[in-house]
Amino acid sequence: MIAEEKAMLEDIALRLPGFGKERGNLIPILQMIQRKHGYLPPDAINMVAEYLEIAPCEVYGVATFYNQFRFTPPGKHQIQICLGTACHVKGGDIILENFERKLEIREGETTPDREFGLERVACIGCCALAPVATVDESIQGHMAPSKVEGIILGFQIEKERVAREKKKNDAGG
Amino acid sequence: MMPEDNKTLEQIFSAIREKAATHAKEKEQIQGPKIYIGMATCGLASGALETKKAFEEALIQRNIQASITQVGCMGHCYGEPLVVIHNPGFPPILYHQVTPGKATMLVKSFLEEGDPLFEYLLGAMDENDMIPQVWDFPRFNQEKRVVTKKCGLIDPEEILDYIAMGGYAGLAEALRQDPRHIINQVKNSGLRGRGGAGFPTGQKWELARNTEGKEKTVILNADEGDPGAYMDRTILESNPHQVLEGIAICAHAVGARTAILYVRAEYPLAVKVVTWAIEQAKELGLLGNRILGTPFDLEISVFQGSGAFVCGEETALIQSIEGHRGMPQLRPPYPVQKGLWGNPTVINNVKTFATVPLILKHGETWYRNIGTESSTGTAIFSVVGDIVHAGLVEISMGVSLRTLIFDICGGVPNKKSFKAVQIGGPSGGCLPAEFLDTPIDFDSLTAAGAMMGSGGLVVMDEDTCMVDVARYFLDFTQKESCGKCTFCRIGTRHLLNILERITTGDGREGDLELLEDLSKDIKEGSFCGLGKTAPNPVLTSLRYFRDEYTAHVAEKRCPAGVCRPLTAYYIDLETCARGCDACVGSCPVEAIFTTKNRKKGVDPTLCVKCGECVTACPPEYDAVKKVSPPDRAPIVERPPDIDNC
Hints:
The structure holds 2 protein chains of 2 kinds.
Chain A: H1 2-15, H2 26-37, H3 42-52, H4 56-65, E1 77-82, H5 85-89, H6 92-103, E2 116-121, E3 133-135, E4 138-140, H7 145-172
Parallel strand pairs in A: 1-2
Antiparallel strand pairs in A: 1-3, 3-4
Helix pairs in contact in A: 2-3, 3-4, 6-7
Chain B: H1 9-29, E1 34-38, H2 41-45, H3 48-61, E2 67-71, E3 83-86, E4 93-95, H4 100-112, E5 121-124, H5 138-141, H6 159-164, H7 169-176, H8 179-189, H9 201-210, E6 217-222, H10 231-238, H11 240-254, E7 258-264, H12 268-283, E8 299-305, H13 314-321, E9 345-349, H14 350-362, H15 364-368, E10 378-385, E11 391-396, H16 401-408, E12 418-423, E13 429-432, H17 442-448, E14 456-461, H18 466-480, H19 486-503, H20 511-525, H21 529-533, H22 536-544, H23 546-554, E15 568-571, H24 582-586, E16 592-594, E17 600-602, H25 612-616, E18 624-627
Parallel strand pairs in B: 1-2, 6-7, 6-9, 7-8, 10-14
Antiparallel strand pairs in B: 1-3, 3-4, 4-5, 10-11, 12-13, 12-14, 15-18, 16-17
Helix pairs in contact in B: 3-4, 7-11, 7-14, 8-9, 8-11, 10-12, 11-14, 18-19, 18-22, 19-20, 20-22
C-alpha cells in the first residue's frame, strides 16, 4: 500500500505543473487527482496546498464542501444509488439498504477487499427510470431489491471465472 | 475554415450554410434505410448501446446496407430506447422500447421483408395513409416544442446538422445588429430567466451592458442540482449548439469576451458533448477569434461543477469558479455589477440561453405571442414519478397542471388516484388535487405556495406519504446547506429531526406548531434562496395535508403505508395458496416462513418492509397485506424449525 501511495504522489507531482498557480485552478486540480486516482489522499492535499501556496486547511475545506470528492479509495466496482425525488418516491432507499445488507458496508464505505464501493448521489437525472443505480459506468434503471443480488453475483461469477482461467493458464504454461 | 479579412459576414455565413446544405443533401442521398437511435443519458440507461449493437450485428448478418445515426433525446423517456427507422417506401417510423431482440426482429421483418411490425411501433413521424401518426397522440400534439424542437432529431455531435436546420442564423443576425437593439429585443420578448427565479433576462443584460468594466464574462449555469430535474442536461446533450449560440449572442450584446460553461461533473456525457461542440464551432469560425469575420472575439471554456446544490445560486457559483467553497455572497453588488474576479458577469440558465437564438431569428413578437402576458414563451418540465408518460415536456406558459399531467402525460398509472404534485424541487411545494387547474406560470405557482423552479415536476399517487416527502426534501436541503447562516444550518437540522421523529412514530404533541414556527424563522433568518425556500415543502404539505401529519403524531399511523417503522406486512391466511412459494424466494432477508398448514407467514422481527413479497405474490391470491400501525397485523406463529430435528 505504501508503494502504491508513493507512486500516486509521484504521478500527481508530475501533473501539477500543467496547471497555473492561480486559486481558480484549485477545483480543476482536485478533479484531476480524483479522476486519475479515484480519491484524494491526505498527502496529495498537502501537495496541492504547497503548489498553490495556500494553507492545507483551505484545500481541505474546499474539497470537503463539494460532494464530488472522496477521501478514501473507492472500490473496484463503484455502486451509486440515486436518491433523487423520483427515486425516493419509488423506493430508492430500500435499494440502498439492500446493497448495504448484501455488501455488509454502509453508504460511503468500501468493502474490506476493495471490490465494491457504495455511495449515494442526489440525482443523476434519469428520473423516468426510477429507481436508478449506477454500477461502474452503466446505469441500471427500474431497480428492485431482487435485482441487487443479481448484480453482485454477476461480478462474483465473473471474478471466479477469471481466477479459474488464470489457474488453468498457469497450469498449462 | 478561418474567416478571411476581406470577406463579409454574409459571405462567410452563406458559405457555412452551403456546406451544411450539402452535408444534409449527402445524408439524404445515402441509399437504403436510415436508423436513428436516441443515445442521450436516458436512452443509454435503458440499453440503447445494446440496441445499437444488435442493429449492427443483424445488418451485417443479413447483409443489408443501412446507416445508423446517434441522436439526442426526444423527451419521451417512458419509451426509451427510442428508434426511428426511415425505410424507403415507408414514412419514418418511431419505435419505442426497442430491446436488442426487437432490433434484430425489425431488421429481419421490416428492412428485409417489408413488414413494419405494427405491434412495436409508436407511430409515423410524417403524414401517410398507412400508419397512424405520432402527432395524433396528445403526448405529441399538445406539446409546444420551441426550445427543444430540434432535440432528438439532430446528431448533437454534428454542427452541420444544426446549421442545416437554421442554426446559428440568430448569431449571424445578432452580429449585424447594434448590441443595444439585441437587448431591446430580448426585453420586449418578455423572456424571464428559466433558472427558477424568473428575473427578466433583457434587464439583466442591460445592467451588465451599462456597467463599466473591461473583462465582462458570460456564465452558463448548468449546475442542475434539483433532484428530479434533468431538462438542462437533455438540452446540452441533444442540442448543445443552440445553447452556445445563445451564449455568443449574449456575449455580443453585453460586450463580454469570455464565457464559461458551468456544467455539473455528474453529467459526464453533457460535458463531453459540449466540449466537442465548442471545438466544432471554433473550427467553423462561429466561436473563438473574429467570429464570422467581425471584430467580435469570444473565448469559451468549460468548468465542471463539483456537486453542491447551493452553487446554483449565482454568487455561490462564482465563488466556486474562483476556487472557494460555494457560499453565497451578499447582494448587492449583483454579479452583473461585480461578479467573477470582480468583473460584470451575466449568469443565465441553459433554457434561457437556448431560447435567445429563436427570439433573434423569429422576432420578439413571435415569442411574445406564446404563453401568457407576464410569463411569455414556453416552460420545459421533466415530468416524473407516478406518471404514465414520464419524460421531458415543453408547453406554453399558462397551460393548466391538469392538462399537463392528465392530458399530455397520461395521468397516474396502475389505476391509482392522484394525490399531489411537487413542483420546483426542494425549494418548491406540494400541491394537492384542488390546485390542478392552476395555470403554469411564474406568478400563479408562487401564489399557490409552490414555485416554477427550474422545472422538476414529480407526480405522486395515493401511495405517497406527504410527511415522508417533506422529510426527504429537508434531508436534502439540510445536507446541502452551506453553513453560512445559523437559521439555515441549525434550523433545517431541527426541522429534519422533528420530521424524522414524526415518521418513526415518536412525534409529540405540539410538533406541528413547532414545525411552522421554525419554518417561518428559517425563511426570515436566511440569506440566500436555499434557506429562504428550504421550509417550503414542509409548509405546503402542512397546509394541504395536515391530517396526514396528525395521523402520524396522534395515532402513530402512516395513512399511505410508506413510513416503514409505522407499517407491517402480513400474509392473509385465507387467500394464501397452500404450497405456493412465490414470496419466499423474493424476500432478501428470509423473513418468510411456512406455517403448519403449508401456508406462509412473515416474521416481523426480520422483515425489512421492502415490499418485494407484494410484487411476488401472484395477483390471483393477492395475499400479502400491508397495515399501519404495525400492531394491527395478525400474529402468525412460526413453527419450530423442522431442519433442526
